[in-house]
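Final report, results section. Input specification for complex C-07:
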Amino acid sequence: DAKTTQPPSMDCAEGRAANLPCNHSTISGNEYVYWYRQIHSQGPQYIIHGLKNNETNEMASLIITEDRKSSTLILPHATLRDTAVYYCIVRLTNTGNQFYFGTGTSLTVIP
Amino acid sequence: KAGVTQTPRYLIKTRGQQVTLSCSPISGHRSVSWYQQTPGQGLQFLFEYFSETQRNKGNFPGRFSGRQFSNSRSEMNVSTLELGDSALYLCASSLETGGYEQYFGPGTRLTVT
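Structure output:
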């Protein structure tokens, strides 16, 4: 599975959009981009995933660049409850369900 | 639909003992994966079970083992506990194997003294 690079920490004002970047320059054509988040001491929570097209669900939007070498997770209106560590994961879909979590981005939403 | 449940939530064991942790997946989910989370190593994949068979295994010693029952419930066992095994052990379930999103339980906090 390709490696990902994320900034270690970010701040975002409450009510503003939080844009979390992820670089995955070695991604291959059949690898998906997944995002999870982990609120302190809880199990990780699935957010969204995509292959090449932008995706949106009730939690967030995922923007993948045309060359697929990077992506951005967007939380449109960040709340204090969005303070968490966000993990960007790139993985094949036919190799079982093991996810390799990196160090993630610690997002702090500031009141 | 109930989420993933893990028991016990907290556990204290002594070095050299063994421990068994339990995971009940979301109803209808057939794949169960286990992860270890420590401050130093982060989240690391242990193994995945699907249809009572181990599908994938991470880079952990043989002291770590698991199994899955016909109702998809899973257990993991750690024998001859070491101080370094102190961690949050997380279980995740998914509908099938091979690229489906995983839903994590709250974890079991194991402390080895």
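Chain B touches chain A through 28 residues (CB under 8 Å). Chain B has no helices and eleven strands. This concludes the modelling results for the funded period.
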